[in-house]
C-alpha cells in the first residue's frame, strides 16, 4: 500500500510536469492551429540556460533568465516563422516545428557534450515525507508550482481579456478578427505562455531524482505529447488530466515492473503511448476534445 | 447624391475586387452611405455583397482577395490597407453572415469578445447595458453557452456583439438568413432602433422585403455591379425589384413595411 501511494505521488508529480508541457502544446494548437513538436527543445533550452547561468548569477536569477529566454525563443519562432506562414497547410507548419526542434536540440547537445549539467536547485536532493510517503523536495515542489501555474492559467483563460480573445479566436478566427481581436497578438501570447510553461517544466524535470541536464530530457516532451492528445488536442482541461494520467501510469509501470515483467523490460517508457492508444480507441477525439472539429 | 441632407460616412468609388487574381467579384461598384442613415444592399448569391463587406471590414486578405482599383473612404479617409482591428477601433464593425457567434463561450463572454476591439475600454460596460436593453432575452441568458440559444437569439447575440465595440457604421451581412418570419420582423425593428440611437447601418440582404422596409436608400448589386439604386420606397415599387426580389405584382407596394413582409413570407414558410 505504501509503495502504491508513493508511486501515485511520484506519478502525480511527473504528471504535473507533463501537464505543463501538454498545456503549452494545447494553447499553441488552439491559438495558431499549429501542432508544435518543439516543446522538447524549449524545455531543454530552458533547463540548459538555467544550468549554465546558475553558477555565475545564482539559481533564482538564472531561473528568471532561463524562463524569459525560453519564452523569447518561442515568441521569436512564432514571429519569424509561424506568423509569416499564416494559411500554410497545417502539416507544413508541424514539420517546420520539427525542423526548428532539431536545430535547437542539436546545438544544445553539441554544447553539453557528454556532460551532465547541474542545475543547482537550492533544494538539491532533499526529500520530504507526506503522510509517511516519501518524495523528493524537487518533485513535491513541481506539484505545487505546476498547480499554481496551471490554476493561474485557467483563471486567466476564463476571465481575462486575453483568455476570451484566445477562446474566441480558437473557435472562429475570422469572426474574432471582425470583432477587432488581433489574431497575431493572440498567437504570439500563446507561444510566449507555452515557452514559460516549457521552461518551468524543464526546471523541475532536471531536478532530483533526475541527475541533471542532459540532452535526453528532451524526451520528456515525447511523453507529454500523448498526454495532450489523449486529453483532447484542443482541451486545456484535457491537457491537465492527460498529463496526470500519463504521469501516474508511467510511475506505476516503472514501480511494478517486476510484476509486469512478462511485458518486457522498460515497459514504462512506452506506457504513455499505450495509454494514449487505449483512450483513442474508445474516444477518438480524446477525453475532452471537441468531437466536431472537422465539421465546417 | 440621393442623400443630400447627410454627409456620407462611407463612399465606395469604382471598386473592383478579384480573388486569387482571376475571379472578378466586384467590377466598378459605387455606393454611398449617408451619416445616420440605413442603406440596404440587395442582390442574389454571387452578386458580390459579401465581397464588398469584406473589403470594408479589412478581411478581404483572409480570403485571398485584392482590391484592383477604386477607392473606399470611411469618414473622409481611405480604408486602404486598414486591418480589421483598426476598422473596429475606428467604429466600422461587421456582423458576419451566418451569425458566427462563439458557441462554446457564454452569452456574456461573446459580448465581451465583441468589446475587445473598442478603442476606449471605459465604453464596454455601458455598451453591454445598451445591448441588454435592446435584447432583454440576452440578459436573461447571459451565463448560458451561446450555442444553446435559438437561431433568432443567436442573431441577436451576433448583432449585440457587434454593438459592443461602439460602431459608427454597422455592417450587417444577411441578418435574416435562416430565421422565422416573425423573428425577421423583430430584427428589422432592432435595426431601426440601432439607427435611431445614432449608428449608420449598411444592411446586406436577400430578404428585400425586410431590407427595403427599414432602409432609407437601397442599392441592387448584380454580378459585381450596381444595377439599381434609389430611395428604398421607390425601389420597392419598381418593377425590376418587384419581379426579382419581392416576387409579386405591383399591388403589394406596402410590402416595404416589415410587418407586411412578415405576413407574406409566413405563407411561404408554412407551405
TrEMBL record, chain A:
Record's bilayer topology term: Multi-pass membrane protein
Localization per Swiss-Prot or TrEMBL: Cell membrane
GO molecular function list: transmembrane transporter activity
Annotated Gene Ontology cellular component terms: plasma membrane
Gene Ontology BP annotations: amino acid transport
UniProt keyword list: Amino-acid transport, Cell membrane, Membrane, Transmembrane, Transmembrane helix, Transport
A Pfam entry, by short name: BPD_transp_2
Similarity comment text for this entry: Belongs to the binding-protein-dependent transport system permease family. LivHM subfamily.
Protein name: Branched-chain amino acid transport system permease protein
TrEMBL record, chain B:
Domain of life: Bacteria
Membrane-crossing residue ranges in chain numbering: none
Keyword Ligase: no
One record GO biological process: L-amino acid transport
Keywords tagged on the record: Amino-acid transport, ATP-binding, Nucleotide-binding, Transport
Coiled coil stretches, renumbered: none
InterPro entries listed in its UniProt record: AAA+_ATPase (IPR003593), ABC_transporter-like_ATP-bd (IPR003439), ABC_transporter-like_CS (IPR017871), BCAA_Transport_ATP-bd_LivF (IPR052156), P-loop_NTPase (IPR027417)
Family under the similarity heading: Belongs to the ABC transporter superfamily.
Protein name: Branched-chain amino acid transport system ATP-binding protein
Species, as recorded: Nocardioides psychrotolerans
Amino acid at each position: 500500500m505504501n509503495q502504491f501511494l508513493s508511486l501515485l505521488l511520484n506519478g502525480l508529480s511527473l504528471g504535473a510536469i507533463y501537464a505543463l508541457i501538454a498545456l503549452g502544446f494545447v494553447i499553441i494548437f488552439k491559438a495558431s492551429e499549429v501542432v508544435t513538436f518543439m516543446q522538447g527543445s524549449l524545455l531543454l533550452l530552458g533547463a540548459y540556460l538555467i544550468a549554465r547561468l546558475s553558477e555565475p548569477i545564482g539559481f533564482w536569477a538564472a531561473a528568471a533568465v532561463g524562463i524569459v529566454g525560453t519564452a523569447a525563443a518561442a515568441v521569436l519562432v512564432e514571429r519569424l516563422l509561424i506568423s509569416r506562414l499564416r494559411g500554410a497547410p497545417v502539416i507544413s507548419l508541424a514539420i517546420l516545428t520539427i525542423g526548428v526542434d532539431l536545430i535547437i536540440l542539436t546545438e544544445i547537445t553539441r554544447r553539453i557534450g557528454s556532460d551532465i549539467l547541474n542545475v543547482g536547485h537550492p533544494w538539491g536532493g532533499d526529500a520530504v515525507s507526506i503522510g509517511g510517503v516519501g518524495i523528493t523536495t524537487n518533485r513535491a515542489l513541481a506539484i505545487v508550482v505546476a498547480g499554481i501555474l496551471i490554476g493561474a492559467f485557467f483563471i486567466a483563460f476564463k476571465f481575462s481579456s486575453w483568455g476570451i480573445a484566445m477562446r474566441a479566436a480558437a473557435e472562429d478566427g475570422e469572426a474574432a478578427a471582425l470583432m477587432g481581436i488581433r489574431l497575431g497578438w493572440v498567437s504570439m501570447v500563446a507561444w510566449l505562455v507555452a515557452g514559460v510553461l516549457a521552461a518551468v517544466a524543464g526546471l523541475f524535470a532536471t531536478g532530483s531524482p533526475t541527475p541533471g541536464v542532459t540532452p535526453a530530457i528532451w524526451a520528456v516532451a515525447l511523453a507529454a505529447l500523448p498526454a495532450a492528445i489523449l486529453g483532447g488536442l484542443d482541451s486545456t482541461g484535457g491537457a491537465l488530466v492527460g498529463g496526470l494520467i500519463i504521469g501516474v501510469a508511467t510511475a506505476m509501470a516503472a514501480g511494478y515492473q517486476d510484476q509486469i515483467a512478462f511485458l518486457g523490460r522498460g515497459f514504462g517508457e512506452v506506457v504513455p503511448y499505450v495509454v494514449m492508444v487505449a483512450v483513442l480507441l474508445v474516444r477518438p477525439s480524446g477525453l475532452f476534445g471537441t468531437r466536431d472539429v472537422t465539421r465546417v | 447624391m440621393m442623400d443630400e441632407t447627410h454627409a456620407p460616412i462611407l463612399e465606395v468609388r469604382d471598386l473592383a475586387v478579384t480573388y486569387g487574381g482571376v475571379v472578378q467579384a466586384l467590377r466598378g461598384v459605387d455606393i454611398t452611405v449617408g451619416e445616420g442613415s440605413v442603406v440596404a444592399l440587395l442582390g442574389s448569391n454571387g452578386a458580390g455583397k459579401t465581397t464588398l463587406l469584406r473589403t470594408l471590414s479589412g478581411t478581404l486578405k483572409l480570403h485571398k482577395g485584392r482590391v484592383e482599383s477604386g477607392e473606399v473612404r470611411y469618414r473622409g479617409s481611405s480604408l486602404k490597407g486598414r486591418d480589421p482591428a483598426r476598422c473596429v477601433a475606428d467604429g466600422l464593425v461587421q456582423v458576419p453572415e451566418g451569425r458566427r457567434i462563439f458557441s462554446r463561450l457564454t452569452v456574456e463572454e461573446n459580448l465581451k469578445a465583441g468589446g475587445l476591439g473598442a478603442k476606449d475600454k471605459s465604453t464596454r460596460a455601458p455598451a453591454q447595458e445598451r445591448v441588454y436593453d435592446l435584447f432583454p432575452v440576452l440578459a436573461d441568458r447571459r451565463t448560458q453557452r451561446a450555442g444553446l440559444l435559438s437561431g433568432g437569439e443567436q442573431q441577436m447575440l451576433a448583432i449585440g456583439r457587434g454593438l459592443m465595440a461602439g460602431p459608427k457604421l454597422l455592417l450587417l451581412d444577411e441578418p435574416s438568413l435562416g430565421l422565422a418570419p416573425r423573428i425577421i420582423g423583430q430584427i428589422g425593428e432592432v435595426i431601426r432602433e440601432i439607427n435611431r440611437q445614432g449608428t449608420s447601418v449598411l444592411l446586406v440582404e436577400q430578404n428585400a422585403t425586410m431590407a427595403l422596409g427599414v432602409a432609407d436608400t437601397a442599392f441592387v448589386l448584380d454580378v459585381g455591379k450596381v444595377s439599381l439604386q434609389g430611395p428604398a420606397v421607390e425601389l420597392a415599387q419598381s418593377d425590376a425589384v418587384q419581379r426579382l426580389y419581392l416576387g409579386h405584382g405591383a399591388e403589394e407596394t406596402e410590402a416595404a413595411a416589415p410587418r407586411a413582409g412578415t405576413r407574406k413570407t409566413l405563407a411561404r414558410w408554412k407551405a
